[in-house]
Each structure stands twice: as structure tokens, then as C-alpha cells.
Amino acid sequence: MENPFLNLENSIRRVQENQEKILAELQVLKTKKEPEKTLLTRKDIVKRLNVSLVTLHSLMKIGLPFSKVGRRTLFELELVENWLKQFRKEAKRKEVQNG
């Protein structure tokens, strides 16, 4: 007759080995974590762009990317910078076309 405690010990050992593998994988995933996105408020973005709130609102109307969280308006810095680069390119192109 088999000793049930030996089976239990083997099962516990396998569970512990699996747990160690999972913890190691989690550690790897933590180190590969994407950098957090820099979110700015309207006040922050106005200072950074050196524009008024009225100008900021106008830019938002024509496509400046933003998010609403409750009543707060937030801007993802990287998206804003990319949008501004594209906006400036288009403005220069139109200026050249109009002579």
C-alpha cells in the first residue's frame, strides 16, 4: 500500500516549483513594463506650450488630442508633441502653397 503522505509531499513540491516559475515570469514582466505616459492638466500644458487657455481651447477644437477624466481634461505629452509637429508641417505646407 502506498503512503499517502509521499504523494502529498510530491504534490506540494510540484506546486512550489510552479509557484517559483510564475514568480520568476512576473519579475521579468515587471522589468519589461512600458514607461508610464506623462499626463498633463490644462494648466500644465498651457505653461509648456506658452499659450493662453483660449488658444488651448481653439487647438482642442481643431484636433489637439486630450482625454476627459470626470471633469478634468488631461493631455498625453507624447501625443500632443506629435500632433503639434504634424500641425506645424501642414501649416508650412499651406503657407508655401498660398505663396
3D architecture notes:
With 99 residues, the protein is mainly alpha-helical. It has two domains: 1-33; 39-98, Orthogonal Bundle (Arc Repressor Mutant, subunit A). Helix content is 68%, strand content 11%. The protein has four helices and three strands, in the order αβααββα. It has helices at 4-31, 42-49, 53-61, 77-98; strands spanning 39-41, 67-69, 72-76. It has a three-stranded antiparallel sheet. A hairpin with a 2-residue loop joins strand 2 (67-69) and strand 3 (72-76). The longest helix has 28 residues, at 4-31. The model has no long low-confidence stretch (mean pLDDT 89).
Strand order of the largest sheet: 1-3-2
**Per CATH, what is the topology of the largest domain?**
Arc Repressor Mutant, subunit A
CATH class of the largest domain, please?
Answer: Mainly Alpha
Largest sheet: 3 strands, antiparallel
| Radius of gyration, taken over Cα atoms and rounded to an integer in Å | 27 Å
- Please give the count of helices: 4
Strand content: 5-15%
CATH architecture of the largest domain: Orthogonal Bundle
Q: Kindly give the count of domains.
A: 2
Oligomer: single chain
Q: What global shape is seen? A: elongated
Structural class: mainly alpha
What is the arithmetic mean of pLDDT?
Answer: 89
Q: Tally the beta strands.
A: 3
- Helix percentage: 55-70%
